[in-house]
Amino acid sequence: TLVGERGLALSGGQKARLSLARALYHSADIYLLDDPLSAVDTRVAKHIYQKCCVEYLKDKVTILVTHSIQFLKDAHQILVLNDGECVAIGSYTQLKEGGIDLMAYQRQTDGPINRRAVKRRTSVTPSMVSSLSEGSDVTDFREAEEVYEQEVKAELKLIGSVESSVYLSYIKAGAGPLLVILTILFLIASQVLYQGSVYWLSLWTNEMRKTPDKVDQTFNIIIYTSLTCGLFVSALLSIICFYIMCMRSSVNLYNKIFCALLRSPIHLFESSPIGRILNRFSKDTGIVDELLPSVAFDFIIVN
Fold first, then answer.
1. Long-range contacts: 214-222, Cβ < 8 Å, 24+?
2. Which is an annotated Pfam family here (predicted)?
3. What one-character-per-residue DSSP string does 137-152 give?
């Protein structure tokens, strides 16, 4: 059985049985069981009562709150409550001899419950009926519907190349037209100055081979130094502009995701594991902050 985070994939009956099992493993002296049999069907309730209350807890002090009067015969003391008031107290035989009609109280509480159960059963899908007929572990229609409604949805993952619209959205999130233009201009200038310095160095070398006595070393050094300094400045400015754009993109995208999360319905937190949501703000954000800028800049420089 898929448990899911915080028992998200469990039905009401499965949660009740799991909570009861955890209480039994604790091995306490006193047990207060708040109607653990209401979330399961009659057959399972009888099995739980026999194995748990009658056999396992026979030497323990057990206080059982229940609407099922068929289990009252084994109780040493019965307290009948109606609208928060004590109606009668005593053993099953004493209550019966005192004229206490327990069936009347059960009919008062079972009426609305049965109507709700019928209403809920109308939304059961044919696939649930077929699974029940094939011997599924689900014990009643209410559990089948709860399992269906609380099933954890698989995370959507896309495989393949990233579309250009994604990169465009990333750039728009962190830079206006001016910053984009400046970054492109500085990148172009750095490439031009780099190629110019290499070309000038090759000319200087060829002149030194052909006519070493006529080469003006001072002039060549000044030109080459100017090109190198210009390359350093343009490359530095392009890096600064690019990383400013990436930093703004990261901050704006993070704020956008966070605002969307705050405005999300409560159902999102019930149907999505908390770890999946935290990954969007930790691992994925870390990739956008650290890995993406360096890889993108290296790609731009190489190409």
1. none
2. ABC_tran
3. S--SHHHHHHHHHTPP
**Delimiting residues of CATH 3.40.50.300 domain(s) in the chain:** 5-149
Cα separation, 245 vs 241, in Å, equals 6
Give the Cα separation of 91 and 176 in Å (integer): 81
pTM exceeds cut of 0.70:
no
The angle subtended at Cα 97 by Cα 93 and Cα 100, nearest 5°, is 95
CA distances from 121 to 54, 251, 274 (A): 32, 48, 30
Query: What confidence tens digit (pLDDT) does each residue in 248-298 have?
Result: 888 888 899 899 989 988 888 777 777 788 888 888 888 888 888 888 878
Q: How far apart are CA 22 and CA 15, in angstroms?
A: 11
Token digits of residue 85: 């008031």
